[in-house]
Amino acid sequence: MPESLSGFGLGGAKGRYVSLCALYLFIYYGFGAFAPLITQYYESIHLTGTQIGLISAVAPIVSIVAQPMWGMICDRYQIRKTVLILTLIITGLVGLLFTGVSSFVYVFLLYILLSFFQSAVVPISDSLALGYANGHGIQFGDIRLWGAIGFALAAFITGLLVEQWGPHVLFYSFCLAFLIAILFLRKVPEEVTEASRFRVSMLAGIRNLARIPRFALFLISSFCMMGSVNANNIWFSLFYQDIGGTIAGIGLAFLLFAGSEAPFMKLAGYIVRRWGLELTLLLSAIFCTMRWFWYSSAPSTTAVIAMFFVQGISVGFYLATAAQFVRENTPASLQVTALAIFFSVGGGLGSMFCNLVAGWIKDSFSVLAIYLFFGIITAIGIIPLLMIKFGRWKQISPDEEVQASQ
C-alpha cells in the first residue's frame, strides 16, 4: 500500500503533520472534558472547598517528582513515543475508576495515581511537536492551537452531556479521547538529533539547567502565570455559577474561551517573528492579570462571555510561546527534561500553591476573592519577565551559557 494511503489515509510529510495536529486535538479534548467540569463531580459527592483544594493540589505535587523523572527517561533512552503511549493508556483507564468512588479518601488516592501518569503527557507531546516544528520550519503555535480547539469542543460538548446525564460522563469522555489520541500518535515522527543522544544524569541535568539565568527567571514567572491559569480551570465553574451562570453556560464559556486561543496562537507566531518571544510573553501576563482582577469585581455572565477573547490573548499567547522559549534557552540534550521541569514548576508548584490558597479563600471569604488572589500572584509573575526582557542577561547559546558557568 502506498505511504499516502497507509494508516488513516495520512501518509508522507503532510500525513505526519495532520497526525500530530490530531494528537493534540484528542489529548486536549480529554483535558477539556475533565478539568473544567471536575468541580461538578466534587460538588455531587459533597466535598468542601478545602477538600477540593487539597485534591487539586495533588497533581502538581506529584508532577514535581514525576515530570523530571519522565523527562530524564525519555532523554536518556529516546523512547518518548513508547512512554507517551503507556501513560495515555493508563491515565485514561485510571480516569474510569472515578466513576466507582464517592468519598474524599478514595478520590484523593485515585488522583495521585492519575497525576503520576498524566504528568508525562504534556511535556512529551510538546517535545515531539517542537522537534517536528523545528525540523520542518513550522511554528509550534500552529500545532498547539489544535489542542485549544479540542479543549474548547470538549468543554462545550461534555458540559451539555453532564447537564443531561450527570458528572460521571466526563470520565468516559476523558478516557475515550486519550485512547483515540494513541491511534494518531503511531504516525507521529520522533525527531532525534545528535545533540539529544547525549547521556546525562538527572542531577547533572537539573544543575546545568539551573545555571541558565533566563530559564531560572522564566520558571519563577511560570509559577505565577501557569499556577493561576491552571487553577482557574478548576474554580471557574464555581465562579460562573456564583455570578448567576448555569452548568450549560460553563460549557459554552469554555468553548468560547478555549476556542479563542486557536486564532491567537496563530497570531502569536507573527508577533514572535516581529517583536520576539519575550514581548509576546509579557503581553500574555499583563492581559491575564487584568482579567483576574476584573473577575474579582463580580461582572455579569453576559460580560464574561462577551469578553471571551481575553483568554485568547492571555492564555493563547502564553501556550504558543512558553514551550518555545524553554526550547530556545536550554541545551538540546536536556530539552525534554527542561520542559518537564518547566511544567513541574508552573503546572506543578504553581498550581499546587494557587489551588491550596484558593480552597482556603473559598471557605474563609468568597469565590470572588479567589480571583483577587489570582490577579495579585500573576502580577508578581510579570516582574521576572521584565527582567528577562530588559535585564543584563544577553541571549547566548544555552550550551555556551552552561559551559561558561562551569
TrEMBL record:
MF (Gene Ontology): cytidine transmembrane transporter activity; uridine transmembrane transporter activity
Transmembrane segments annotated in the record for this chain: 21-42, 48-70, 82-102, 108-133, 145-163, 169-188, 209-228, 234-258, 279-297, 303-326, 338-361, 367-388
Localization per record: Cell membrane
Entries under SUPFAM superfamilies matching the protein: MFS general substrate transporter (SSF103473)
Protein name, as recorded: Probable maltose permease
Protein's organism: Brevibacillus brevis (strain 47 / JCM 6285 / NBRC 100599)
InterPro entries assigned to the protein according to its UniProt record, in alphabetical order: MFS_assoc_dom, MFS_dom, MFS_trans_sf
One CC-aspect GO term: plasma membrane
Topological type in the membrane: Multi-pass membrane protein
Major facilitator superfamily (MFS) profile domain segment(s): 16-393
Keywords from the UniProt entry: Cell membrane, Membrane, Transmembrane, Transmembrane helix, Transport
